[in-house]
């Protein structure tokens, strides 16, 4: 058990590890809720647990949602069924690896959060405007990362439509077809028993498609997300200790060797940030010919852009 906690702590202590961090958060929340549900059910407090879950899952009832606005975020980190979280985390890992490799950790986090928000807003909008769904609005709650995950799936398929996965029993299949099947299944299930979840899928899918198209046109829809995250990182970041400078009056000027902080001859540094036009050309090349077709310089430019 100690090693499990050590692994989780390690995943958050390392940089450029957003994919594993997202998966770890979902699994930890799932484990805590399952244990809590078991304990409360055995003790005869199952009804209380169900009530507590309404503070984590999003309600289609605007009268309830307006008093619990945080559920627009907490719902896409919340699962209670084993198959639900396994399916979501596997897809998050497979498609998230592609987004992370080609666009970087920040873009992956942007897609996860924006996909979840889009799914939640789409869920609220449809359940309060479409008559067929309005009759279900009072008793409808939704949870799960499906909206976020399908946003990442569709984003990957939009960026790399001809990239192939080897699926069991099916063999190599281009991811654009996998994403298309998921969207069609969500459309067909929008009037079924899990209408809310499937509607959230569609909101996430639309966001994933628009995110990549806007990124290719030079606009990153995720900048507000990163601004908010950077703000909270700043609140919890350790402040560096104060540095005390000592100036010797007999040596008012630094020696040439200490003043020169440039790199040694022959070393190469990459400080320039590639322009949006350069990144768009690289993304177009990936879409046409795959990541392997990029030159070393183009890969470095893409990596530097992903760190912005």
TrEMBL record:
Record-annotated Peptidase S54 rhomboid domain positions: 68-212
Major location (coarse): membrane
State the compartments where it is located. Membrane
Q: Provide the membrane topology annotation.
A: Multi-pass membrane protein
Please indicate which superkingdom the organism of origin belongs to.
Answer: Bacteria
User: Mind listing the GO molecular function terms for this protein?
Assistant: peptidase activity
Can you give the residue ranges of the DUF6576 domain? 276-308
- Extract one GO BP annotation from the record: proteolysis
Instruction: Specify the protein name.
Output: Rhomboid family intramembrane serine protease
Q: Which organism is it from?
A: Nibribacter koreensis
């Amino acid at each position: 058990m100690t090693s499990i906690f050590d692994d989780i702590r390690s995943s958050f202590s390392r940089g450029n590890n957003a994919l594993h961090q997202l998966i770890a958060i979902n699994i930890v929340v799932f484990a805590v809720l399952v244990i809590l549900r078991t304990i409360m059910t055995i003790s005869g407090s199952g009804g209380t647990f169900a009530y507590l879950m309404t503070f984590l899952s999003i309600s289609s009832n605007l009268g309830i949602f307006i008093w619990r606005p945080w559920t627009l975020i907490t719902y896409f980190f919340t699962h209670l069924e084993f198959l639900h979280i396994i399916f979501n985390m596997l897809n998050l890992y497979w498609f998230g690896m592609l987004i992370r490799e080609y666009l970087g950790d920040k873009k992956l986090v942007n897609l996860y959060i924006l996909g979840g928000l889009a799914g939640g807003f789409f869920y609220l909008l449809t359940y309060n405007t479409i008559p067929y769904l309005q009759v279900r609005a009072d008793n409808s709650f939704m949870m799960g990362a499906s909206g976020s995950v399908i946003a990442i799936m569709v984003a990957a398929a939009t960026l790399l439509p001809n990239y192939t996965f080897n699926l069991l029993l099916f063999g190599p299949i281009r991811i654009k077809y996998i994403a298309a099947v998921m969207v069609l299944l969500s459309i067909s299930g929008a009037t079924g028993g899990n209408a809310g979840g499937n509607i959230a899928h569609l909101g996430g899918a639309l966001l994933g498609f628009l995110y990549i198209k806007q990124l290719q046109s030079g606009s990153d829809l995720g900048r507000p997300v990163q601004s908010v995250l950077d703000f909270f990182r700043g609140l919890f970041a350790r402040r560096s200790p104060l540095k005390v400078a000592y100036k010797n009056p007999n040596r008012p000027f630094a020696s040439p060797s200490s003043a020169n902080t440039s790199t040694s001859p022959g070393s190469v540094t990459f400080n320039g940030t590639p322009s949006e036009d350069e990144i768009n050309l690289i993304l177009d090349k990936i879409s046409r010919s795959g990541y392997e077709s990029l030159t070393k310089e183009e890969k470095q430019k893409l990596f530097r852009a992903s760190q912005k």
